[in-house]
Write a structure and sequence with these properties.
545 residues, alpha/beta, GIY-YIG endonuclease, Rossmann fold, 3 domains, 13 helices, 16 strands, 25% helix, elongated
């Protein structure tokens, strides 16, 4: 519901990014604007020496509460209020919790305004009040409450719960069932998924199951995002899906809020106020008496602390079922065995597990503490190249022994390094598969008609798997060196994963000519024999003599 009154004055928080101005200021409302002003309205007001400043209404004031010199509100910008009473309290909590301002929270919670969207919805000023509650899902079979997590939502249980899915469990189907249970009670739902490059299966499943859900993802256009937000604000939609900013979605009568993969770093906002979607979701569910469901295979440290403090319950499968489905993790010490560490300083049981995986035709991964090639002068350093070389010799000898015992020529087992200094093994690198500086793989789009983009001469792999450099093209005699030079200023960074440009110190002031040297006869010559083009003068140069 939109809180509309006919007050003589309002309390406005102005859009000025200064902490000492993060407080409400009193303004007088003209008679012509009193019917349009509501809590959360975006208005234009004079402030200090500025004629027009954006602001939001956060309270009301009577005539006797206004100062004598109170200035008037100029106009109401948008008929849609940015927040209601509960939303304002949540934004104030975020500002206090993360040492920010209320205006910073409003910027993150409300998408950029699109006036054309508001013009399309011209009609009753409060459609939610006129049309009543938003329609729920289509009539169908009653949802099954055999799932204990769905039963919590269907029963109106208020609190926080961490759901730890089993390996291979369909998280998307269960989250869709949670949303359906909330809608069956006439309550709304918010699903927050991490916005990563690979996408989210949970978000895609929710969009498919609820085509009318309000999508607030940041990769959409401002027009689509503001349309979805406006529909939620008017009470016409009950389900919201998006990234971390969707935790502020104006969903009426909130029943469940789901944070998928709560330990993902994408849930942390990098701009002020630097909130975390998990903590804001817990606070909002507590205020709305709703169910907050946190999912993830590995909990965050904050979630573990909340569970130990009994602030969050745990919803997990039976311990025997988890032990049967989850992979077995065994901690071994390579030095606590009879003959010491094996090849590559691995435990004998680790080497046996590698051979067993290869025998089944599966892949095996070995994580090492350092990347880089093997150093003959430091054989004890456990780099990626050193471990790969030792494992290659060990697995090759085992394959040779097996081949000799079977009467065939045992072929070697390739050991590939996947650190950032080595490209995709097995052949020359593709133009769209260049290594990223962070160690992963990054797609690279080719330029039409110009071939793949190259940066710094990427390395190639020989057939035996060695790392070599692509040969540089020969430069004709007397040709100028066209290679890029380091900049003269500090702060040069890495241009690629293979080399780093360092800045070159500038020459000290006055080092152009020797001290007390007579001026040269040729005005176009400089110290060191460098000739200056006639008719061109260096900016800021001073004449000597």
């Amino acid at each position: 519901m939109i809180d509309r009154r006919t007050p003589a004055g309002v309390q406005v928080v102005v859009d000025v990014p200064l902490f000492h101005l993060d407080r409400p200021f009193s303004y007088r409302v003209p008679e012509a604007l009193r019917a349009d002003v509501s809590l959360g309205s975006r208005v234009k007001v004079p402030f200090g020496g500025r004629k027009r400043v954006d602001g939001w209404v956060v309270g009301f004031a009577d005539e006797d509460e206004l100062p004598a010199d109170a200035r008037e509100v100029l106009r109401v910008v948008s008929p849609l209020p940015a927040f209601d009473g509960d939303g304002l309290e949540l934004l104030r909590w975020v500002a206090a919790r993360y040492a920010g301002t209320l205006i910073d929270g409003v910027r993150l919670a409300v998408p950029p305004r699109v006036a054309a969207i508001e013009k399309e919805a011209v009609g009753d000023p409060d459609p939610a009040a006129a049309a009543g509650p938003a329609p729920g899902p289509a009539p169908g079979p009653a949802p099954s409450f055999g799932d204990p997590l769905v039963a919590r939502v269907a029963g109106g249980w208020a609190g926080a719960v961490w759901w730890r899915p089993l390996p291979g469990e369909d998280r998307a189907t269960r989250i869709v069932a949670l949303v359906e249970a909330a809608l069956a009670r006439g309550r709304g739902a918010i699903v927050i998924a991490p916005e990563v490059a690979a996408g989210s299966e949970v978000a895609d499943a929710v969009r498919k199951a609820f085509p009318d859900a309000a999508d607030l993802s940041s990769d959409l256009s401002e027009r689509k995002r503001y349309r979805a937000w406006a529909e939620l604000r008017r009470g016409r939609r009950m389900v919201a899906i998006g990234g971390r900013s969707a935790v502020f979605a104006p969903v009426a009568r909130l029943g469940v809020i789901v944070v998928d993969d709560e330990a993902n770093a994408a849930h942390k906002e990098q701009r002020a106020p630097r909130y975390h979607a998990r903590e804001v979701a817990l606070c909002r569910a507590d205020r709305a008496q709703a169910t907050c469901v946190l999912t993830g295979y590995v909990p965050s440290a904050e979630l573990v602390a909340a569970v130990r403090a009994n602030w969050c319950q745990v919803e997990a499968a039976d311990r025997a079922l988890e032990r049967r489905l989850r992979p077995l993790v065994e901690i071994v010490d390579p030095y606590e065995q009879d003959h010491g560490p094996g090849p590559a300083r691995l435990h004998r049981r680790s080497l046996a597990a590698l051979r067993e995986a290869l025998r089944r035709g599966e892949s095996a991964y070995v994580l090492v503490p350092r990347r880089g090639a093997a150093d003959p002068n430091a054989p004890g350093v456990r780099s990626a190249g050193q471990v790969a070389a030792e494992l290659g010799r060990f697995l090759g000898s085992r394959a040779a022994e097996a081949g000799a015992a079977g009467g065939g020529g045992g072929g070697g087992t390739p050991v590939w390094r996947l650190d950032r200094e080595v490209l995709d093994p097995g052949g020359p690198p593709a133009a769209d598969r260049l290594p990223h500086r962070g160690g992963g793989w990054r797609g690279r789009r080719s330029r039409p008609g110009r071939g793949p983009r190259r940066r710094g001469g990427p390395a190639h792999l020989e057939p035996r798997g060695g790392l070599v450099r692509a040969p540089r093209p020969a430069r004709p005699p007397g040709a100028a060196d066209q290679r890029p030079r380091p900049p003269r200023r500090a702060g040069a960074g890495a241009l690629g994963p293979w080399f780093l440009l360092a800045h070159r110190a500038a020459a000290p002031r006055g080092a152009g000519l020797p001290a007390r040297s007579p001026p040269t006869a040729d005005r176009g010559s400089r110290a060191g024999g460098e000739r200056r083009r006639p008719g061109r003068r260096r900016h800021g140069a001073r004449a000597n003599g």
